[in-house]
């Protein structure tokens, strides 16, 4: 049986840059984590592909998945459901591979309850005004929604206490490096390396 992989959860307030940082991490050839593709009821945007960006499903299909216990966590976010397929996560961890989730904070909280041994990383904006800037420049939200997002952002940021690490997303490349360094350090801390060396000693 291989050693179980690490469940890595990246979360943080809306607009902080979770999607951007995640895409950058997975565009790097040395990244060895497996990305868990989420299920959503949101309509695909131009260029998004079913089974690559998300599994795009109807509300009925999503609710069926909830009823059948197919989701590790799920949350409603801006009128759409988002969730993590549980079978993929369990199987991949059992194969000894690290699984990476990029999810909003309510979902991350549910994962913490079910998988307390996961590695929880909170992505922080450099400031609240910069967070607002990012939401505005992304241009996907109306004035009203931006106001609500900023109110929720304060509550979301308070949740950072539940996380193992806080990473500032001042620059995308730096945030990615920090996240990868945390994962390496966590593997060492969790004795994976130590166990390997113990085995070496047994052989000698
Ligand atoms: N709880 C939960 N949140 C998710 C999941 N997948 C994506 N999200 C979050 O849903 C939010 C909206 O994602 P999306 O519609 O792709 O738009 P974005 O705001 O441009 O990233 C983001 O905060 C994602 O991190 C999931 O499986 N579970
Ligand atoms: N480090 C950064 N510096 C400046 N802008 C950023 C940074 N990270 C992300 N952004 C921008 O902020 C906006 C929100 O990023 P996004 O990845 O959609 O956030 P989230 O997935 O957390 O909602 C996007 O326009 C993105 O290009």
TrEMBL record:
Keywords on record: ATP-binding, Cytoplasm, Kinase, Nucleotide-binding, Transferase
Residue ranges annotated for the Guanylate kinase-like domain, each copy included: 5-184
Pfam families hit by this protein: Guanylate_kin
Matches recorded under SUPFAM superfamilies: P-loop containing nucleoside triphosphate hydrolases
Example of a GO MF term: ATP binding
EC number: 2.7.4.8
Recorded superkingdom: Bacteria
Subcellular location: Cytoplasm
InterPro entries: GK/Ca_channel_bsu, Guanylate_kin-like_dom, Guanylate_kinase, Guanylate_kinase_CS, P-loop_NTPase
GO CC terms in record: cytosol
Record function comment: Essential for recycling GMP and indirectly, cGMP.
Family of the protein in this entry: Belongs to the guanylate kinase family.
Protein name: Guanylate kinase
The organism of origin for this protein: Neobacillus rhizophilus
Lineage of source species: Bacteria, Bacillati, Bacillota, Bacilli, Bacillales
Gene responsible for this protein: gmk
């Amino acid at each position: 049986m291989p050693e179980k992989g690490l469940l890595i959860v990246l979360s943080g307030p809306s607009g902080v840059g979770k999607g951007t940082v995640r895409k950058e991490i997975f565009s790097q050839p040395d990244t060895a984590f497996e990305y868990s593709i989420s299920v959503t009821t949101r309509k695909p945007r131009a260029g998004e592909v079913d089974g690559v960006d998300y599994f795009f499903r109807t509300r009925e299909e999503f609710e069926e998945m909830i009823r059948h216990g197919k989701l590790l966590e799920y949350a409603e976010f801006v009128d759409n459901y988002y969730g993590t397929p549980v079978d993929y996560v369990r199987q991949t961890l059992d194969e000894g591979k690290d699984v990476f989730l990029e999810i909003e904070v309510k979902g991350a909280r549910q994962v913490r309850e079910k998988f307390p041994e996961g590695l929880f990383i909170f992505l922080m904006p450099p400031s609240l005004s910069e967070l607002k800037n990012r939401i505005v420049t992304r241009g996907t939200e109306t004035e009203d929604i931006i106001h609500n997002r900023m109110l929720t952002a304060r509550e979301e940021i308070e949740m950072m206490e539940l996380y193992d690490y806080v990473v500032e997303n001042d620059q995308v490349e730096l945030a990615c490096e920090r996240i990868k360094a945390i994962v390496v350090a966590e593997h060492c801390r969790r004795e994976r390396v130590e166990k390997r060396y113990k085995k070496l000693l047994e052989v000698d």
